[in-house]
Amino acid sequence: MDRQNFIKKAGLGLGVTAATIAPLSAASRKRFRWRMVMVVPKTLPIWGPGMLRFAERVKLMSGGSLSIKVYGAGELVPALETFETVKKGNVEMGHSAAYYWRGKIPASVFFTSVPFGMNANGMNAWLTAGGGQELWDELYGAYGLKAIPCGNTGVQMGGWFKKEINKISDFKGLKMRMPGLGGAVIAKAGAIPQQIPGGEILTNLQTGVIDATEWVGPYHDYIMGFPKAAKYYYSGGWHEPGSVLELMINKDKWESLGKELQMIVKSCAALTNQEMYGEWLAKDSEYYKKILSEGKTEMREYPLEITAKMHQYSNEILAGVAKTSPLAKKIYDSFKKFQSTYEKYQEVSEQAYVRAQKA
Amino acid sequence: MDRQNFIKKAGLGLGVTAATIAPLSAASRKRFRWRMVMVVPKTLPIWGPGMLRFAERVKLMSGGSLSIKVYGAGELVPALETFETVKKGNVEMGHSAAYYWRGKIPASVFFTSVPFGMNANGMNAWLTAGGGQELWDELYGAYGLKAIPCGNTGVQMGGWFKKEINKISDFKGLKMRMPGLGGAVIAKAGAIPQQIPGGEILTNLQTGVIDATEWVGPYHDYIMGFPKAAKYYYSGGWHEPGSVLELMINKDKWESLGKELQMIVKSCAALTNQEMYGEWLAKDSEYYKKILSEGKTEMREYPLEITAKMHQYSNEILAGVAKTSPLAKKIYDSFKKFQSTYEKYQEVSEQAYVRAQKA
C-alpha cells in the first residue's frame, strides 16, 4: 500500500525537508501544537491508523506548522467526553461520529447515518453539493464547533443472531446490542436494545446475556470473535447504511489556523476519507469471504415483512427528531428531499447496472 | 457550496497569508511554476471548475511554493497530446482519464473503467487497498509518468436512442457514438461505433448521421441537448460503470517536488475526487428528475438478453487486453480477482440494503 511506502519514507513525526520548503526562522512562523482525542482506541484497525496517518501528513504538508498529537479513547479523556473537551477548547480536535452526541443535539444523527437513510455516496453528495455541510456548520457552530467528514464505514451489516429471525414478533423480548436510533427502532418492535462497550460484547453473547449484536462489518466483526458466538449473520444493515466519521475542531481554534492550514486539514481529511472507505470496503469484502469459507456462519437476509416494519418505525423516529428544534426540521427536510431525488436516480444508475451485470 | 465560500475568501491566484505562514525570503525557497493540460475544456461543468479549484488550493496550501496554471483542451496542446506532452516533461501535469491512452497502453483502461467492471467505490477500494495504485505506478512508471485518481463520474448512463432496442439484433448496423472498449463491445453485436467530438454529437444525432449516443450522465447529457434529439434514454451504463479521472504527472518532475509538496498534491487530489464525485451524483440526480419532468424522454432499461450478450463480449475483449503484455495480464488478474470478492460482498451489503429499503 502506498501509505506503507509513505510511512517508511517519511518516518513518524518528520517535519520539513530542506529539499523543497526551506525552514523558516523561528520568529517568523506561528506554530500550532494541537491534540486530538478519539472515541475509539488508536489500535482499532483502519480507524486508529487512519488518524495517526492523518496527523503525520498534516505535519508534513504544513512544514511542521501544525502538529497534532493523537490520543485514543481514554488516554486523555473518556470517549464520550470528546464533544465537551473539544467544545471547551481543552483539546483542539476530536475524531468521532456525530450521532454519539444525539443526547445533546438530536439532529446530529443526520451527519453520521440514520436508519433507512443514505448510503456513503449519498452522504458525500449531500454534504458536498446538497447543502449538508452548511447545515452541519450551522448545527455545530452554535456549540463552538466545526466538523467535516473524515472516514466512512459503508453499509454496516445487520448483525449476529443466535436464533433465526423470521417474523417481526421474533424481536419481542430480544436482547440485542444496538445503540443509537437503530436501538430505538428495534425497541418499537419489542426488542430490548443494549448499550454494551465493545470489549464486553463477545462474552455477553457467549454467555447468553444478550441474544444478538451488531457491530460494523465483516472485518471488524470477525476480529471481535462473533462467528464463535452466534450462527446467523444478517445482511444489509438498515440501521446504519453509510456512517460518516467526523473530524471535529474547536471553532475558535479552527479560525486561528488561517486558510492555508485549514485547507491542509480539509484536504488531508478528504484523503483519509477516501482511504478509510476504500480500506473498509476491501477488508470487509475479504473477511466476508473468510467468514463464509470457515463454514461456521449462515448468512440470512431479513424478511421483507420485517424491514417494512422497521422502515415504518424509523420514519416515525426521524419525524420525532425533526420536531426537536426548527433547525432539526430544516436538516430533516433537506436530508429527506435530497435522499428522495438521489435514490430515484440510483434506481436507473447503480441499481440498473447491478441488474445488467447479473444477466 | 463550501467551494464558493472558499473561492470568495481566497481569491483566484492568492498565495500566502501572513497570519499563519510567514512569507519566506526568495532565496531560501524553491518555487515551482507548473502547467497542467486537460483533455476537456476548462468550462466543462464539474470537471473544469474542479481542476481550477485544485490548482488554487495547491498554491494556497503550499504557501505559493507550487503554482499550477491550468490549460483546457486545445489551449496549449490538443486534448489527445496530453499524454506525450506530460511524458516528455514539456508540461508537468495533465488531467485526463487513463483509457484515452489505450492505443499506446492497452491495459490503461483498467485504471479508468472497463465494460462490466467495478463501480466508483470498487475502483477506490482496489486502488487504495487492493494493490491497484501500485500496478498503475508500475504501468505508467515505464513511460516516465505517475498518476493518481482525481475525480469520478460514477456509473454512466446507457445512452440516447432514437429507436427502442428490444433485442440484440437491433444493434446490427446501428451507428452509435461510443468510443473506447464500449464501442468495441457493441461492434461485436454488429453496431458501427462512431468516435465523434463532443461538439458535433447533437447535430449528428439530429440529422440522422448517427442513431444513438452515450455521453456521461443526466447532467452533462442534458446540457448537450440530447433530450431534443432522441426519445429513449437507457439506464445502467455497463460500458463505463465508474470512470476514474486521472491526475498525471511527469515522474521526474514529481520526484523533484519532495514529499511535502507531493503530499499536498495527493491530498488535494483526494479532496477534488470527493467533491467531483459528490457533485456528479447530486447534479445527475437533479437533472434526471428534470429530464423526466419535461416529459420528452422515455426511460428504458436494456433487456437482460442484451446485457448478457454484452457481458460476454466484454469478457472476450478484456481477456484480449490481458494478452497484450505480462504486466497487462497481472493487472487484469488483480482487477478481476478484486472485483469478484468485492461484488460478492456488495450483494449482502449495498444490494441487501436496497432490497430492505424497498420493502
What does this structure look like?
- Two copies of one chain form a homodimer.
- With 359 residues, chain A is an alpha/beta fold.
- The first copy, chain A, has twelve helices and eleven strands.
- Chain A has helices at residues 2-10, 47-61, 82-87, 120-129, 132-141, 180-188, 198-206, 218-224, 251-294, 304-322, 326-348, 350-358, and strands spanning 32-38, 66-71, 93-96, 145-152, 159-161, 175-177, 192-194, 212-213, 232-234, 244-250, 298-300.
- In chain A, the strands form two sheets. The first copy, chain A, has a six-stranded mixed beta sheet.
- In chain A, helix 4 packs across helix 5, helix 5 (132-141) runs antiparallel to helix 11 (326-348) and helix 6 (180-188) packs across helix 10.
- Chain A is globular and about 60 Å long.
- At the A-B interface, helix 1, helix 2, helix 4, helix 9 and helix 10 of A face helix 1, helix 2, helix 4, helix 9 and helix 10 of B.
Oligomer: homodimer
Largest sheet of chain A: 6 strands, mixed
Strand arrangement across the biggest beta sheet of chain A? 7-6-8-5-9-11
Mean pLDDT of chain A: 92
Order of helices and strands of chain A: HEHEHEHHEEEHEHEHEEHEHHH
